[in-house]
Each structure stands twice: as structure tokens, then as C-alpha cells.
Write a structure and sequence with these properties.
Layout: E1 6-12, E2 15-18, E3 23-26, E4 29-30, H1 35-46, E5 52-53, H2 54-61, H3 69-83, E6 90-93, E7 97-100, E8 105-110, H4 116-120, E9 128-129, H5 141-153, E10 156-160, H6 167-177, E11 185-190, H7 200-208, H8 219-226, E12 231-236, H9 242-255, E13 259-264, E14 274-278, H10 292-295, H11 299-310, H12 319-331, H13 336-349, H14 351-356, H15 361-364, H16 379-388, H17 392-401, E15 408-409, H18 410-417, H19 424-436, E16 441-443, E17 450-452, H20 455-467, H21 471-487, H22 499-504, H23 506-516, H24 523-539, H25 543-555, H26 565-582, H27 587-602, H28 606-623, H29 626-643, H30 646-663, H31 666-679, H32 687-692, H33 696-710, H34 714-730, H35 734-752, H36 755-771, H37 775-791, H38 795-812, H39 816-831, H40 835-852, H41 858-872, H42 877-895, H43 898-914, H44 918-929, H45 939-952
Parallel strand pairs: 9-11, 10-13, 10-14, 11-12, 12-13
Antiparallel strand pairs: 1-2, 1-8, 2-3, 3-4, 5-7, 6-7, 15-17, 16-17
Length: about 950
């Protein structure tokens, strides 16, 4: 019987480790410590003063199991906490193990009738348990193991979390798994139907069958009656009787050394010795993964599918269904009860219908088990239960916090709700209470501190806010807060160090703009906020959203609107820029840019003039009007010199250098671009990041890569192109990555014959452009894919793709790159026998180059023209083609384009060989080949070397 026989006690001063009763005592009273932690302490007491290694402890406490070292450290921390002021007695030998200090003695006592525990113990009783039979629990295996370990370390563990998260089911599974460890009782006490808090203690007494004398049943009397029994109590659904449940738990912890508590509550007990475990939602796939294999690995989807199939629904595992279920589970925050409701509805309405109707989730998600508590029979009832337990002030706070679509900071919450009746100091306390009651979630990854509401809780609170008649006022204050934050507050200067902050507020900004441009909103607030947030959309490469938001703001921009020149320019230029990347060269865009410049010049605002001139340069440049673009680059440089800002002047260098590269003057282009790379430092206020949307050294280096490639430095070109791409990917700048790929990596790989790199980089460009709606870059990727197909021998397919891309560019008015790569189309047309069409394509391109000033590729066009003449004509064709190649060579030399010189020399050498002039052929080729100092593995260099070697030994 308990309490009889010898007791082994380790004693040191006021401390006792009772190995028989498995108690840690101080001054005769029990100290709070879990079972596993006690086992470790017992081993240390047996070897008092001696070092016990970590491996020895693990092997003795967890024999045969694989246990990580941090698990041992958790229990060591629990022992130190129990020792309190004497925690120094447990000493760590760094990296080796632990020793228990002090003069410990062993006492073997005979337990008598006067023993403390015996006097509180009842005669031997049968084991008591009322745990229900096990249910199928999906997705909680790791949580069960973690809770088992926690209950071996702490004697009171509280499972908390929002309604429907599955606290009770999880707790029951843990309790069932621990049945063998408790020799007296393992019981659940359900408080869900207890309406009178005074009945808490009597409910426990009734479940355990305690015989208590007198009429008063109190926490202390219940605890004393439990006495030294070794039992586990699961106190379920404590939030509505939290004070009395906490009093009972506190008494049991102090008086009953062998009792353990497992508690479920939406609000924690806040007693000594309590360890809180916040039950997580079931896991769902990330937003960028909807594939079948990935989806089926996540517990939220596993639960949904299991429940639909249990309701006799024939669930087909295919991509469409998995995507729909994933969306449902995300919107339901992975909450098991809500997912079960949704699965039940899907069994009758279909998955797609449920997905489409989740905006009305509280009417849709009903039909819980008939035997469930009323609050678990509908999703609304689940939220009603928690909401009705809140004081009026916390209800009001929760309702207002629901306005935040993307979480909130304390500053934002104070700005939204404070007034004469709700002071700022109360907001922080209220948020703390709502977190404790599992209605608000702390985002631990954010700094400064940030909180959010689960979507289902937010939907419920928004309904309550609207019903209170305060929804519109809250929406206005929300929109005005973010307007002020991004226009004149701490976020008004766009800085890379704050990019995470800007991005984090995108959902709040979207919600604020939706309200501002609604019939009950305030368009003036919306226009200003749109203009201020433009740099963030562009930084996130959200071109389509930026375009649509900017267009809506401009449509609502009244002449009398109180909008600063800077913000007005920001709106006009932003819309134009995103139209270039997404739609094309719309003439109204040019009018908008010109208007922006006129506004800036009238205000003598040089910064705004620079932005407008850059936009006008960009429009003209991508349209292919390079001579016009050059004039804007020169005007930009003149205004930049007026600002006397070195960084602004260097932007002018970049624009001019880029223009000259496409004009065909590679020497001048290289000089200006290298100045930018060597000297540019972004302004401290990061205005260039906000204005120009790219890292200026990155885009200068990309253009330099093209320039040095044409100059014949293939290795330098590839190096600069790769550095540019890596910088963009490291910065997670999608638009910058497209620029690096489209302007440097892909074209250089095609030009040099590195088709493996070309294939990879073109695919990457296409994927990025498609994912982020960069229509311009999608067209360019299609063009280069067509050229790659031709290089691989798939000429017909390549021609179809090139024609399609060419037509798309022409319709969009974006002729810059079309003219640059049109030689590939013309050459391919000749390859399929369409010589006349190929020649007319070349002539059209040459005429356009002379008109627009885009001449970087003219030497190559002349070479292709010569090749087409060779294929189409007879008789004098060799002589005519040779003259064409000589003209091309002259132009390439004048432009400093050694790369084109080599390719043209190859064509000329082949003609000379056909004319039976081997010496002239060798001279034409070696005069260029010998001037190349790198890139000997490129396709043209290899071809040239083969011809030179062949001519040297008399092989034509």
C-alpha cells in the first residue's frame, strides 16, 4: 500500500529528494517539478558532487531512445527553476555534463502512520479513468510527442488556442497515451456545460469520486482529498470559469506532489508552474505551391479529404481539386473545426462551390456533430462563445482591429481606436488580453512588434463592427493612418532598410484603397496613398497591380486636388513605366510624361523634372526612337548638373551611355557606363530607388556587358552579365533579374554560341516574366526562344515564334529589341527558302535603323543581307555579297564592334574561298582573329580557327 515500507531520501540542508515518492521537497513542502526532470535530479543526487556526463544522463533516463541534447537542456532548466534561489547547486560543465553541488546525505526511513502523504491518502482505490475511446487524429503526431515530453517536465501544461483549433482532441490523445504512467487516475473534467463557476471544484470531486465532508467544497479541500495520489487531470474548456479553474489548479499544484494537470482553455490560467502550449493550426501548402504531391503532404488537406470521404463523397485527387482545397484550408487558417465544416459542405455542394462561397462562411459552415457542444455545431457559434466572454471594451477593440487586413502595429492600433472613451494606454493592455484569449496572434518574426487576426476571427469581428455602425469611421481612420504614414510619416522616405516594412503593409494599403475609391470612401485619400505607395509595388515587381491602382488614382485626380508636385509626378511616371512593361507604348502615356515634365518645370522642381525626363527617355528608348531618347538623356544631364548632385549626374551618364550603345558608338558607351559602375553611390535618401526602380550600378553593368561583348571581350561580357543577375537574385528584385537576363545574360549567350546557358536563362526569363505579368520581357523571352530553336535546327518552329514575337512588339510599339534581333528572323526566312521576304525584312530594318538611330546591329544586318544574296542570286552574287560584307566590316570597325567584325570576316572568308582566293580569305580572317584577346571558346572564334587552320594546310 502507498506510504508503507522504506523510503530513500537524499537530503541537503532544507532540500530533500524523496526517491520512493518521487518528490522534491523544500522545508517539508513539495517543490513543483515534472516526472522526467525528477528522474534526472535523482541521478544527479545519487552522484552528488560528481560529474554526470550528458550521454550518461540520456542513456539512463531515455534508455534505447534517440534524444537530442536540447531535450535534456529543457529538463535541466526545469530543475533550476524548481531550485529557485539555490539554482547554483546545479552546475554545468560546459560541453560535458552536470553535477549537483552540496553536502547530500542518504536517509533510509520507515514510513509511519504519521507520514504527511499517508495522512492525506485514502485507502487503496481502483484505477479511475473516464477517457473516451480514441478518435482519428490527423496531423498532430509531433504535437502529441511534444506534449508527452512537456508533461514529464512540468506538472501543469495548458493547451491554448483559438476556438476550433482542436485543443480537446489533442489533449485527450495525450492523456490516453499517458495512461500507463499514472497509477491512480487519468480523468477528464469537462467544464463546457458548467455555467456556475462555483461548481468547478465539485465537478472535479465528482469525477474522481472524492468523499468530502461538510457542505463546502473548495479547491483546497479537493486538493487535500487527492493528497498523494499519482494522477492526471484533464481540465477541459476552462475559459468561461477561468478564475475558479486557476484557483483549483493552483491548490492541486501546491498540495498534491504526484498530480499532473493538462488544461485546455482559450485563456491561460496564469499560475505558478504552468507551461503554456499554443496549439498550432494544421499546416497548409505555401502560396507558391499548389501541386498534388506537395498538397497531400499537409495535414489540413489530409483532414479535409478524410472527412469528405467519410461522408461518402468520391473525392478525386487531381490538380484542380487540390488547388481548390488548398485555397479553402488557407482561408480557414488551418483550423480543424472550420475545415471539418467545409468538408461537410463540400460533400453536398461540391468543393468549388464551397471555395466560392467562403466570403459568407458563417452561413455556409454549419452542421457539426449533433453530439457536439452547441458552440461546436456552427462556425459562428464557435466565435460567439469566445466573443461573448469578452468585456465590452475588448469587444470594441477586437472589432476595430479587424479593419487591419494585413496585421497591425501598436502605433496603428492606437491611431485607429483612441478617443475620449478609449485611451492609448488601454490599447496595449487590451491587445495583451486578446492575445491571452487566443483571439489575436503575435507575429514573432516582425520588428517592431506586430499582431494579426486569423481570417475567420477577422471576418466575424468585421461583421460586429458593421453592426455597431462604426465600420465607416474605422475604415476612414485606417486609410488616413496609412496615407499619413507613407506621405509624411516615418515611412515617407523609401529606404532599402525599410523594404520589409513597406511590403508588410501591402494588404492594409490595398484595403485602404478599396475603401477610398468605393462609393462611401474618399478619393482624395486614395489618390495620395496610391502615389506614395507606387515605389513599393514597383519594388515588389507587382506591375499589373501598380498599373491598375495608378490608373484608378489618375482617373479620380481632380484639378483642384491637394497633391504635391512630387506625388503628382510619381503617379504620372509610375503609370507610364508600368504601361511600358505590361501593355506597350500607349500614346497617352507619352502625353502623361510630357504633362509631368510641364508641371515640374512650372514649379521649378528639379527632382521632379529628372523623374519626368527619365520617364520620357524610357518611353522613347523602348519605342526604338533612339535619337529622341538621346535628346532626353542630354536634357536629363543638364538638369542633373544644376542639382550639383554627383549621383544625379551619373544617372545622366547611364542614360547617355545606354543610348550610345544602341546608337552603335561602343567606345563612348563604355566610357559613360564604366563611370557609373566606378563612381555611383546611391543617395542616402534612396530617391533613385523610388524613382528609377532599379539598382543603377546593376543596370549599368548589364549594359556594359553588352558593350564589351560587341567590343570582342566575350569573357568580360559573360562575367559582367552573371554578376548582374546574381546581384538581382540576391536582392530578390524580380524586375532587376528580368533586366539582367533580357539585356545581358540571354543575348550574350546566344551571340557567343553558349546554347546551354541560353536555354536555361531564357526559360528563367520566361518564367519570371509570366509570373509577374512583365509582358515586355515575356515578348523578349519568346523572341530569344525562337532564335534558340533555329540555332538547334528547328527552323520552321523558330520562324513561327520569331514572327509572333515580332508582331507583338510592333503592335505594342516596342521596336528597340525587334530591330536588334531582326537579323535572326531574316536569316531564318532564307533558311526555309523565303529569300525575298528575308531581304525585304532586312531592308525594312535598315531603313528603320537610319530613321530612329538604333544602329548597334546594322553591321550584322548588312552581313545577313550578304548571306541572303548568296542564297538567292547566281552569277554576280559572290561579288555583290563580298561588297556587302566589306561595307559591314567598315561600319563595324567604325563602331568599335570587334565581335561583328569577326562574324563578318567569317562570311567574307567563305566568299573568298568560293572565289578561289585562299590567301585573301586567310588575310580577311586573321586580320580580325589576331586582334581578339579572349573568348577563344565562343562559336565564332572556333569557326574562325578551324578555317584558318584548314587554309594553312591547303584545305579550302
Amino acid at each position: 500500500m502507498p506510504g508503507q515500507g522504506r523510503r530513500c531520501i537524499y537530503k541537503c540542508g532544507e532540500w530533500e529528494v524523496d526517491a520512493t515518492r518521487r518528490e522534491l521537497l523544500y522545508n517539508g513542502g513539495p517543490a513543483l517539478i515534472g516526472g522526467r526532470a525528477f528522474e534526472i535530479l535523482e541521478v544527479l543526487a545519487q552522484s552528488a558532487g560528481e560529474l554526470v556526463t550528458k550521454n550518461d544522463l540520456i542513456s539512463r533516463i531515455w534508455p534505447g531512445a534517440v534524444v537530442e541534447e536540447n531535450t535534456l537542456q529543457v529538463h535541466i532548466s526545469a530543475i533550476r527553476k524548481a531550485l529557485g534561489a539555490d539554482r547554483h547547486m546545479l552546475r554545468t560543465a560546459s560541453g560535458r555534463g552536470y553535477r549537483l553541488l552540496g553536502n547530500w546525505t542518504i536517509q533510509n526511513n520507515i514510513s509511519g502512520s504519521g507520514d504527511r502523504s499517508d495522512s492525506q491518502s485514502s485507502p487503496e482505490r481502483p484505477f479511475v479513468s473516464n477517457l473516451p475511446l480514441a478518435e482519428d487524429l490527423i496531423g498532430r503526431a509531433s504535437a502529441v510527442l511534444q506534449l508527452e515530453e512537456l508533461l514529464s517536465t512540468y506538472r501543469a501544461v495548458t493547451l491554448t488556442g483559438t476556438g476550433g483549433i482542436g485543443k480537446t482532441r489533442l489533449a485527450l490523445e495525450v492523456a490516453r497515451s499517458l495512461l500507463p504512467k499514472f497509477e491512480d487516475a487519468c480523468c477528464i473534467v469537462e467544464f463546457g456545460s458548467v455555467s456556475d463557476p462555483k461548481l468547478v471544484s465539485s465537478s472535479v470531486a465528482g469525477v474522481l469520486g472524492l468523499q468530502l465532508g461538510g457542505n463546502e467544497i473548495s479547491p483546497v479541500s479537493v486538493a487535500r482529498s487527492i493528497g498523494g495520489r499519482k494522477l492526471l487531470l484533464l481540465l477541459d474548456n476552462c475559459e468561461h470559469v477561468i478564475d475558479d479553474a486557476a484557483a483549483l489548479a493552483h491548490a492541486i499544484m501546491r498540495i498534491c506532489p504526484r498530480a499532473s494537470l493538462l488544461v485546455t482553455s482559450r485563456e491561460i490560467l496564469r499560475i505558478d508552474g504552468e507551461h503554456v502550449y499554443r496549439v498550432p493550426p494544421l499546416d497548409v501548402p505555401s502560396h507558391d505551391r499548389d501541386d498534388i504531391e506537395n498538397g497531400l503532404q499537409h495535414s489540413a488537406l489530409q483532414l479535409f479529404i478524410a472527412r469528405t470521404r467519410s461522408l461518402q463523397m468520391d473525392f478525386v485527387v487531381d490538380r484542380q481539386n487540390i488547388a481548390a482545397v488548398t485555397a479553402i484550408c488557407r482561408r480557414l487558417d488551418g483550423i480543424p473545426l472550420a475545415i471539418e465544416f467545409a468538408a461537410a459542405r463540400a460533400a453536398t455542394l461540391g468543393i468549388l462551390e464551397v471555395s466560392l462561397r467562403l466570403d459568407d462562411r458563417f452561413k455556409l459552415l454549419t452542421g457539426g456533430h449533433r453530439t457536439a457542444l452547441p458552440r461546436h455545431q456552427t462556425l459562428r457559434a464557435t466565435l460567439d462563445w469566445s466573443y461573448n466572454l469578452l468585456p465590452d471594451a475588448e469587444q470594441r477593440l477586437l472589432n476595430h482591429l479587424a479593419v487591419f487586413a494585413g496585421g497591425f502595429t501598436l502605433e496603428a492600433a492606437i491611431a485607429l481606436i483612441t478617443d475620449d472613451s478609449y485611451r492609448a494606454s488601454a490599447v496595449a493592455d487590451g491587445i495583451t488580453n486578446l492575445v491571452a484569449k487566443s483571439l489575436v496572434v503575435l507575429d514573432g518574426s516582425a520588428s517592431p512588434a506586430r499582431w494579426r487576426l486569423l481570417e475567420t476571427v477577422r471576418a466575424y469581428a468585421l461583421e460586429a463592427l458593421e453592426e455597431s455602425g462604426k465600420g465607416q469611421r474605422a475604415a476612414r481612420r485606417h486609410a488616413e493612418f496609412f496615407r499619413d504614414l507613407f506621405v509624411s510619416g516615418p515611412a515617407s522616405e523609401f529606404r532599402p532598410t525599410l523594404i520589409a516594412f513597406y511590403r508588410r503593409e501591402i494588404d492594409n494599403v490595398s484595403a485602404a484603397l478599396d475603401w477610398a475609391f468605393s462609393p462611401v470612401g474618399d478619393t482624395a485619400v486614395g489618390v495620395v496613398l496610391t502615389a506614395a505607395y507606387v515605389p513599393t509595388w514597383l519594388n515588389m515587381s507587382l506591375m499589373t497591380e501598380c498599373r491598375d491602382r495608378a490608373q484608378r488614382a489618375l482617373d479620380n485626380l481632380q484639378p483642384e486636388a491637394n497633391l504635391s508636385t512630387n506625388l503628382r509626378i510619381q503617379l504620372l511616371t509610375a503609370l507610364g513605366v508600368v504601361l511600358v512593361y505590361t501593355t506597350g507604348m500607349v500614346e497617352s502615356t507619352l502625353v502623361g510624361f510630357a504633362t509631368a515634365l510641364e508641371v515640374a518645370e512650372r514649379a521649378d522642381d528639379m527632382n521632379s523634372q529628372l523623374r519626368a525626363l527619365w520617364a520620357l527617355w524610357s518611353f522613347s528608348f523602348y519605342k526604338g526612337a533612339n535619337q529622341v531618347a538621346r535628346s532626353y538623356a542630354e536634357r536629363f544631364s543638364r538638369v542633373a548638373r544644376r542639382t550639383e548632385e554627383v549621383a544625379d549626374i551619373l544617372i545622366g551618364n547611364r542614360l547617355f551611355g545606354t543610348t550610345m550603345h544602341y546608337a552603335g558608338d561602343q567606345v563612348v558607351a563604355r566610357h559613360h557606363l564604366e563611370r557609373v559602375i566606378d563612381l555611383y553611390t546611391a543617395p542616402v535618401d534612396q530617391r533613385h530607388t523610388a524613382w528609377f526602380h532599379h539598382d543603377q550600378r546593376l543596370v549599368a553593368r548589364a549594359m556594359l556587358a553588352r558593350t564589351v561583348c560587341l567590343q570582342g571581350f566575350a569573357d568580360q561580357a559573360r562575367h559582367n552579365a552573371q554578376v548582374t543577375l546574381e546581384a538581382a537574385l540576391t536582392a530578390d528584385h524580380k524586375l532587376g533579374a528580368c533586366y539582367a537576363l533580357g539585356e545581358a545574360v540571354c543575348p550574350i549567350a546566344l551571340m557567343t554560341g553558349d546554347y546551354a546557358t541560353a536555354e536555361r536563362s531564357i526559360a528563367m526569363l520566361g518564367d519570371l516574366a509570366t509570373a509577374y505579368s512583365f509582358t515586355f520581357w515575356t515578348r523578349l523571352a519568346n523572341w530569344m526562344e525562337g532564335e534558340l530553336l533555329i540555332k538547334g535546327g528547328h527552323v520552321s518552329k523558330g520562324v513561327v515564334l520569331l514572327r509572333s514575337a515580332f508582331d507583338a512588339f510592333r503592335q505594342a510599339g516596342q521596336m528597340l529589341h525587334c530591330s536588334g534581333f531582326v537579323g535572326a528572323l531574316a536569316e531564318a526566312l532564307g533558311g526555309v527558302g523565303h529569300f525575298a521576304e528575308g531581304l525585304s525584312t532586312i531592308e525594312e530594318a535598315l531603313e528603320r535603323a537610319d530613321r530612329d538611330g538604333v544602329r548597334w546591329h546594322v553591321a550584322e544586318l548588312l552581313r545577313v543581307k550578304g548571306e541572303l544574296i548568296l542564297q538567292e542570286s547566281a552569277g554576280e552574287a559572290l561579288s555583290v555579297a563580298a561588297d556587302c560584307f566589306l561595307d559591314a566590316l567598315t561600319l563595324a570597325r567604325r563602331q568599335g564592334a570587334l565581335f561583328w567584325e569577326l562574324r563578318i570576316a567569317l562570311s567574307l572568308a567563305r566568299v573568298r574561298i568560293r572565289q578561289e582566293q585562299p590567301a585573301e580569305a586567310r588575310q580577311a580572317l586573321t586580320s580580325v582573329y589576331d586582334r581578339v584577346t579572349e573568348g577563344f571558346g565562343t562559336a565564332d572564334m572556333c569557326s574562325a580557327r578551324a578555317i584558318i587552320d584548314g587554309l594553312a594546310i591547303g584545305i579550302p
